[in-house]
């Protein structure tokens, strides 16, 4: 039987430090996915993932259990993402032009090329999406990422960000509007 | 981060509708049945919302194109504090060892506490009795064979002290008596030795007296003998003087 997050936390706090590894294995994919989509670079996402779990381990005694562990973890990860984003100085747009879905360097192919395969077109579509997503403000991007990729409810996002549900909906609406505009702009540019 | 050189890109449809929250709830299927029905009715008469909904659905399709691979295995190295290492070490020990260690630590702590509070410990008749007297207050703990000796009052302790004092006194008196007897014996032996010495001195005195008497008698006999010898020499004519 799988242990719940709270049970694993209890074990870790009672001195069974290896138990924390179960939480890492359970939550590393969502945290990595969130960080990658927030930051756009695989390397940064890995770093944030590590920072998040280290911070969670060090502050595990401060976790009071009145919220879900995953919400607490997402909040730590988002704080780490925002810290990195503040440090970046216009760097993300350049890197997005030259990195693939996992942050590896790629050439930005001509979408109109007759020789481009379906897979390539799909990759290009994803790349455009990434550029557009990275171009919208982080506070809207994080709401879209949590809703679209982490499949969280409005209430869960509100809990993580500690804002009202109405604000979540408002940011989501504005974010989708801006994303739509960016996507149309990028497509017309190519 | 907002950049000044980029215009704020947002579609503003003429006749902007205030059903944004309802649209988002409907789009993500988080509307209640009644909200859903109400919004569907609204869609029939609001081209703004209808167009917005279609556009957002296309955006969501685009968002679905970005699928990430599984996260690389996250390795975190957790530096354990000495306390955590000690805890883990304790956890590895068998239960009986932990119980023994806990008892030993508890006993050591108890002894330290009792020492600090000027306690005394009595070991008597299979019972270990601890008594403490710190800062005017009095506390005592007893453990051992006697089940009734769980706690002692001040009177109990005083009675015990009196009994112990009497016991010690009796023992001391017995020792004194034994010493006295041994001393008397030694005195008797000394008196006997004195008497023997007196006898010896008397014998020595007698012997000296006899010696003196013998000496006196011997001198007298020698004188007589010398007188007799000199008399005969004169009678023989003094031959030796002529030789000289």
Task: Write the H/E string of chain A, N to C.
Answer: HHHHHHHHH
CATH class of chain A: Mainly Alpha
Count of discrete alpha- or pi-helical segments spanning 4 or more residues of chain B? 7
The two chains with the largest interface, and their residue counts, are: A-B, 56 and 41 residues
Helical content band of chain B: 55-70%
Overall shape of chain B: rod-shaped
Count of distinct strands of chain B: 3
Write out the strand line-up for the largest beta sheet of chain B, numbering strands in chain order. 1-2-3
- Per the principal axes of the C-alpha atoms, what is the gross shape of chain A? globular
Strand content of chain B: 5-15%
What structural class should be given to the helix and strand makeup of chain B? mainly alpha
- State the CATH superfamily name of chain A: RNA polymerase sigma factor, region 2, helix turn helix motif
> How would you sum up the major sheet of chain B?
3 strands, antiparallel
List how many beta strands of chain A DSSP finds.
0
Poorly predicted runs of chain B: 1-14, 134-140, 238-244
Overall structural class of chain A, as computed from helix and strand content, comes to mainly alpha
Low-confidence stretches of chain A: 91-116
Task: Specify the biggest β-sheet of chain A.
Answer: none
Describe this structure as you would to a colleague.
The complex is a heterodimer of chains A (190) and B (244). By secondary structure, chain A is mostly helical. Chain A has one domain (5-108, 118-189): Orthogonal Bundle (Rna Polymerase Sigma Factor, Chain: A), CATH 1.10.1740. Chain A has helices at residues 5-13, 20-39, 42-58, 69-87, 91-98, 118-135, 138-148, 154-161, 165-189. Among the domains of chain B are: 20-60, no CATH class; 94-152, no CATH class. With 244 residues, chain B is mainly α. In chain B, strands 1-2-3 form a 3-stranded antiparallel β-sheet, with helices on one face. Chain B has helices at residues 20-27, 33-45, 47-63, 82-92, 95-116, 154-235, 239-243; strands at 120-124, 127-134, 137-144. At the A-B interface, α2, α3, α6, α7 and α9 of A face α1, α3 and α4 of B.
